[in-house]
Amino acid sequence: MKKGFTGIVAGLLLATVSGVSFAENDPLVGKWKSIDDRTSYSRADVEIRKKPDGTYEGIIVETRNIPGAEKMNICHQCPGQLKNKPFIGLPFIWGFRQDPKNPLQFVQGSVLDPIGGKVYKGKARLSANGKRLTLRGYVGVSVIGRSVTWIKY
Questions:
Q1: Containing domain of residue 144, as a range?
Q2: 130 Rama class: left (phi>0) / alpha (psi -120 to 50) / beta
Q3: Tens digits of residue pLDDT in 59-111
Q4: Which keywords fit this entry according to its UniProt record (predicted)?
């Protein structure tokens, strides 16, 4: 009985360590600096995590103001449960899944515009070197939307 229990514990430990090292090697997981497509300023730092269900979620970990503008701290325009929540810790991308046909593409996501408070469909494309992420939020079809680039650090 003791030998069987030890084997189970060793197996669980190996599975846990394997899962951790997989997450560490996942090029989408980590901290990203968002670059505003309209101003070219970095507005926020985002941490992307892989959830147990295999989807990705991004939360805001730091915000910056555009020079000459007041720094925003609260999501006054956000819908539902996110309304009046602080930007720090706010999940604003969720549901992204890696495209099985193209491991550098992530699809079926949702993107919250924390300034305007609208939620859009989303997709993302990772650069070949894993250092740039192009995130696209859109309405209906991808052609009607907006793209931003994030830089991994």
A1: 28-152
A2: left
A3: 999 998 888 888 889 999 999 999 999 999 999 999 999 999 999 999 999 99
A4: Signal
pLDDT at 149 over 70: yes
Dihedral sign for Cα atoms in the order 37, 131, 69, 117 = positive
Beta-bridge partners for 74: 86
Q: How many domains does the chain have?
A: 1
CA–CA separation, 46 vs 148, rounded Å?
13
Q: Are 133 and 28 in contact (CB under 8 A)?
A: yes
pTM here is 0.79
User: Which residue has better confidence, 5 or 151?
Assistant: 151
Residue 151, beta-bridge partner list: 33, 132
CA distance 72 to 69: 9
The strand ranges marked E within the chain are 30-35, 42-50, 56-63, 74-75, 85-86, 91-99, 102-112, 119-126, 132-138, 145-152
Residue found under tokens 């602080």: 86
Which CATH number do you get for residue 35? 2.40.128.520
